[in-house]
DNA sequence: ATGGTAGGTGGCCTA
């Protein structure tokens, strides 16, 4: 699927508003500084017109979030949790948001999670710690923290989905999960088995916690294995990132099964990686039929 | 076995 092919079905349906009332389009993007790239966010919103955009790594304090830029484009509803310099998450929406909440994983107020209700659906924007370079929890505290974060996510998410169900709500979890769980989520499975993001310690944890929560990896419903699907390409490859296509699928959209049954389309907005001074991640979109 | 690039910060950290 080329970027153009991917773009049309989603963009036309949400751009022209004809099916807008019948569909809910959710996007997620690790923007790697929202202030530096606010015009890229604006261009993306203008082109794809998702109803909701979940951001990660906004890298600014909540007060410094460039809300006006997005409000002008019709994204009037925002939930933001930022901090100076690192991490930070947000949800932008054309539809009203309510019941905004945050969760502090591992007892840290490090702005890695925010959630809100949109059109009766509970939407989460999550940023899992990257985990450093050495895949040994005994020697690398950042990797130990990542594993502890995933372990807490396992029990927390299962409970969260249960509570949503008892309240009659569907759940969409999006974000930079910093794990590429399947062999076809990386450019070379064997070479990446000892590279953080694709070690069995991480991939088994992520698949287990998703299954235990009863959630569906909706990107893989529409782009099933063995197709390679990537959402991130390292800056360190320089200009060769596209030539070799050495990417990983670190950014995800999951939903509860009833919502997954109403999935209409999925897209990876890969063209943004070719824009000047891009984020190293690209947006992932999913469109659902509304009841 | 290693270093490559990027962003925010404040005299290096995280990714």
Strand-helix topology:
Elements: H1 3-15, E1 23-30, H2 38-48, E2 52-56, H3 67-71, E3 77-81, E4 89-93, E5 97-101, E6 113-118, E7 121-127, H4 141-166, E8 170-176, H5 189-192, H6 200-213, E9 216-217, H7 218-222, E10 232-233, H8 241-244, E11 247-248, E12 251-255, H9 257-260, E13 263-268, E14 284-289
Parallel strand pairs: 1-2, 7-8
Antiparallel strand pairs: 1-14, 2-4, 3-4, 5-6, 6-7, 8-12, 9-12, 10-11, 13-14
Helix pairs in contact: 4-6
The structure holds one DNA strand of 15 nucleotides.
Keywords:
DNA-binding; 14 strands; Deoxyribonuclease I, Chain A; six-stranded mixed β-sheet; alpha+beta; 9 helices; 291 residues; disordered N terminus
Report on the architecture of this protein.
With 291 residues, the protein is an alpha+beta fold. The chain has a single domain (3-9, 24-289), classed as Endonuclease/exonuclease/phosphatase (Deoxyribonuclease I, Chain A), CATH 3.60.10. 30% of the residues lie in helices and 24% in strands. It has 9 helices and 14 strands. The strands form 3 sheets. Strands 3-4-2-1-14-13 form a 6-stranded mixed sheet. Mean pLDDT is 94; it is low at 1-8 and 12-19. It binds one DNA strand of 15 nucleotides through residues 32-33, 36, 57, 59-60, 84-87, 130, 132, 142, 178, 234-238, 277, 280.
